[in-house]
Write a structure and sequence with these properties.
- By secondary structure, the protein is of the alpha/beta class.
- Among the domains are: about 100 residues, PH-domain like (Roll), CATH 2.30.29; about 140 residues; about 130 residues, Ribonuclease Inhibitor (Leucine-rich repeat, LRR (right-handed beta-alpha superhelix), Alpha-Beta Horseshoe), CATH 3.80.10.10.
- The strands form 2 sheets. A 7-stranded antiparallel β-sheet has the order 4-3-2-1-7-6-5, with helices on one face. A 6-stranded parallel β-sheet has the order 8-9-10-11-12-13, with no helix packed on it.
- The longest helix has 25 residues.
- The radius of gyration is 30 Å and the shape is flat.
């Protein structure tokens, strides 16, 4: 399955993607209205008797251009439907920085303060006018072959727009959501055609709630459809990497759940599910996505929870969690979830681990002698994995309980084998620490400055070359610890609170740093300029920071080895 995601790097040093603009919702501009036939317009505009100009604060609503002071030229709103043509005014001797709006019987001129603002008004008005047209056309569809062409044109318009705004991609998706909700009698082929048509918009955007509902239905009704693999896979990958809280967008979780169930319906379904999970959060992953693990756990445990929701509502939270663990282990229906959720859940679920241990050991022993053992082998393996994780991460501190876990593991061949592998790993880890520590290290999400300091003081990290603190809670304060890592070459600070003060300290002490990821951090020009002393930098990610174009040019000039740069969603883009 293909991999997508914002951590894939894009070299923009030699890019010529063109100017980008924020979508205007309102602004101040000079207005002039010429109510004459168009044949006289050129002559009037170039004459010395220029028409009168009025200052207005205009708002671009969904349907019209409205002035905050409805007087003079803008006494009444100007509906987008009455605008016949929209273009930049570029005649010789014409007024500077003007956008021309032609309507029946006249012309409206909008004069901006400079060429950039003029172009921003032009593209924003053009977008508002076109999206208004598509809403009208797709609100009352007649022929579906025509509708599909309009949808493709709408998607293409959104993808090629020079406007840089989340709503540029979200507005078409909401229009199509409404279309699908109001036309429930479409054929399965119509559904697939529409999904394929909007697929490019979903590569970098979460589907809105109504569209998630439609996707869930498609996964349930046509799980073997190629749309599930070819279109939904990158969408679900993006959800797992980017979602911050399923509580705020539960339909994204439901869609992810239905997608995993659809994968399970394919030939060798469980193997397909496992491959998908490994592609997202496996040991061979080239770049870590710390949000993936808690999101997978949330999806899987919520799926199990939903089946026992009525019972759980009558129980205490503590008993509910323990009940889920025990019942899930004993229920064959959830095999498809357990290979995913139990592999990760002890990392994320906040439960009483001693109680969980007692329940898992008990259920594990029951499974060994139960008539369900034939179809519960996967469940037994999952239980063993949990017990090994409890030992590996020192979740159980009581020595007697640890001995009980070891005894339980040694009671079966699979348990004995996994326990021996755990012992081997721990011996290798101690030997690695003695020789100077690991070369790569990734801290779990929610780690803090104190966690990092405690970890780095617990052993030897002189060999550490690659450190990922992505999606943790570290701040600039952790720079005091980072500068003590003499071999550090790659540092990932994606989506942390690491700021300018930390950057200045890094630039003074980590001259050998080669790869630095500052995506979605609060750094500004003040801190970024200090990076000019780090001559070894060859890859720098400043995506979604407060980088300006001037600072970007300065860094390019002063960092001769810089080959990969990501400046998307900044002023330099």
């Amino acid at each position: 399955m293909g991999k997508t995601g914002p951590c894939s790097k894009r070299s923009l040093l030699h890019s010529s993607s063109g100017m980008r603009y924020k979508l205007l919702q309102e602004g101040d501009i000079q207005v002039c209205v010429v109510k004459y036939p168009r044949t006289f317009l050129s002559k009037l505009l170039t004459s010395k008797f220029l028409r009168r100009w009025e200052p207005h604060h205009l708002t671009l609503t969904d349907s019209s251009l409205v002035s905050a002071t409805p007087t003079g030229y803008m006494e009444a709103p100007l509906s987008y439907s009455t605008i016949e043509d929209l273009q930049l005014l570029s005649w010789d001797n014409a007024p500077k920085y003007c956008v021309q709006l032609s309507f029946p019987g006249g012309t409206v001129l909008l004069q901006a303060a400079n060429s950039y603002l003029r172009d921003q008004w032009f593209h924003s008005l053009q977008w508002k006018k076109k999206i208004y047209k598509y809403r009208k056309v797709l609100n009352n569809p007649s022929r579906w072959d025509v509708v599909l062409k309009e949808i493709r044109a709408l998607v293409d318009m959104a993808l090629t727009s020079p406007l840089q705004d989340e709503s540029i991609h979200q507005a078409p998706l909401h229009i199509i959501s409404t279309l699908l909700a109001e036309n429930t009698n479409l054929s399965a082929q119509d559904h697939e055609n529409i999904i394929v048509a909007i697929a490019p918009l979903l590569e970098n955007n979460h589907p809105p709630p109504d569209l998630c509902e439609f996707f869930c239905k498609h996964c349930r009704e046509r799980p073997r459809s190629m749309v599930v693999i070819e279109v939904f896979t990158p969408v679900v990958q993006r959800i797992l990497k980017h979602n911050m809280d399923f509580g705020k967008c539960p339909r994204l979780r439901l869609f992810t759940q239905e997608y995993i169930l659809a994968l399970n319906e394919l030939n060798a379904g469980m193997e397909v599910v496992k491959k998908f999970i490994h592609s997202m959060h496996g040991p061979t992953g080239q770049c870590p996505h710390p949000r993936v693990l808690p999101n997978l756990v949330a999806v899987c445990l919520a799926a199990i929870y939903s089946c026992y929701e009525e019972f759980i509502n009558r129980c205490s939270m503590f008993f509910s969690v323990c009940f889920l663990l025990s019942r899930a282990l004993a229920h064959a229906k959830f095999t498809k979830y357990l290979n995913i959720s139990f592999h990760f859940c002890m990392d994320a679920a906040q439960v009483d681990y001693k109680a969980a241990h007692d329940i898992i050991c008990g259920e594990f022993k029951k499974l060994q002698g139960s008539p369900y053992v034939g179809y519960s082998s996967d469940l037994c393996v999952s239980a063993v994995q949990i017990l090994c994780l409890m030992l590996e991460y020192n979740i159980i501190e009581n020595k007697d309980t640890q001995l009980q876990i070891i005894s339980t593991l040694e009671s079966t061949q699979v348990g004995l084998r996994m326990y021996e592998q755990l012992c081997d790993r721990q011996r290798e880890l101690k030997e690695l620490q003695r020789k100077g520590g690991p070369t790569r290290l990734t801290l779990p999400s929610k780690s803090t400055d104190a966690d990092l300091a405690r970890l780095l003081s617990s052993g030897s990290f002189g060999n550490l070359e690659n450190l990922s603190l992505a999606f943790t809670n570290v701040t600039s304060a952790c720079a005091e610890q980072l500068i003590k890592l003499p071999s550090l070459k790659q540092l990932n600070l994606w989506s942390t609170q690491f700021g300018d003060a930390g950057l200045r300290l890094l630039s003074e002490h980590l001259a050998c740093l080669q790869v630095l990821n500052l995506c979605e951090t609060p750094v500004t020009d003040a801190g970024l300029l200090s990076l000019s002393s780090m001559k070894s930098l060859c890859s720098l990610n400043m995506n979604s920071t407060k980088l300006t174009a001037d600072t970007y040019e300065d860094l390019k000039a002063k960092l001769p080895n810089l080959k990969e740069v990501d400046v998307r969603y900044t002023e330099a883009w």
